[in-house]
């Protein structure tokens, strides 16, 4: 793992950062590079070969790639690349742990490649350099046409970085017993306590999530009905298609499609966005980074709920289960092409066409045009 100099690094509770202080410097040159390539995209075959040749032959680095990338039939049939291919180190997701030996990550593809790279590192994440070779490219600021120059600049150090915060998520099964710890019987029925202290239950999944945690109704035709707690206190119940808990990075993904505001990745925050809520007044909210959110099924929910993490590991949530979410202490250091402010607004304009409209004609031009017609 490389040494990073970043006085403005985000803490678990969050604090005001000086964007100019977020710089990448190397205590020693990087030696091991992980290359993530979008699978099943033949257009990325040549860029992948070019990059690997450059890193192995010119930079003399140890290059790690997924085994299924090397096993690609199109790659194996290229005899001119076989010498490079034999020098690549391979790994298999879920079987081989490479988290302690990588100095730099280079992604080739769309935003999904960066999300996937993040999932491989459940602790500290090496700096990530992402090239835009996919369909959207909101998180991939670099153009591949000048990859040698850009990689050399990063190796020289002193590059700007965005510390993209992640969510630490726990799925706890059997945390509550119905009508015991979580529920109190009143005249008007069973209602939840407004404060939860019970720490029982079994943690069945623990993940670091870069974009969002999505809780939805799954295949059921009924509205989902889940309770939302903040630092142990009941905040509200969510009735609708579900709820999205996202990082600032994820605010431009599913949350934006659900009507949320877009938050710059440097802002320490967590966003909660309802999906098609059955309430006209339920608006997305932003809470401070570091608080703990907890989501459980409401006592009177007619059906179970389903949860997914950055679109992966989808599973069912039943009564008595809970999802705990807070800010991770391990952000993703994403290397900027220009700087952390310009890159983000450029992505808004180029990828999401933010504030793109036909401009009004100047008043003098309109007057001149009117006089000419007369």
From the structure above, extract its key features.
single chain, 374 residues, alpha+beta, Rossmann fold, Tumour Suppressor Smad4, 2 domains, six-stranded antiparallel β-sheet, 9 helices, 22 strands, globular
Architecture overview:
This protein has a six-stranded antiparallel sheet with strand order 11-8-21-18-13-14. It is built from nine helices and 22 strands. The termini are far apart. By secondary structure, the protein is α+β, with helices and mostly antiparallel strands. It folds into two domains: 132 residues, Probable inorganic polyphosphate/atp-NAD kinase, domain 1 (Rossmann fold, 3-Layer(aba) Sandwich); 161 residues, Tumour Suppressor Smad4 (Sandwich), CATH 2.60.200.30. Helix 5 links the parallel strand 5 and strand 6. Keywords: Kinase, NAD, NADP, Transferase. GO terms for molecular function: NAD+ kinase activity. It comes from Danio rerio (Zebrafish). Its EC number is 2.7.1.23. It is an enzyme of class 2 (transferase).
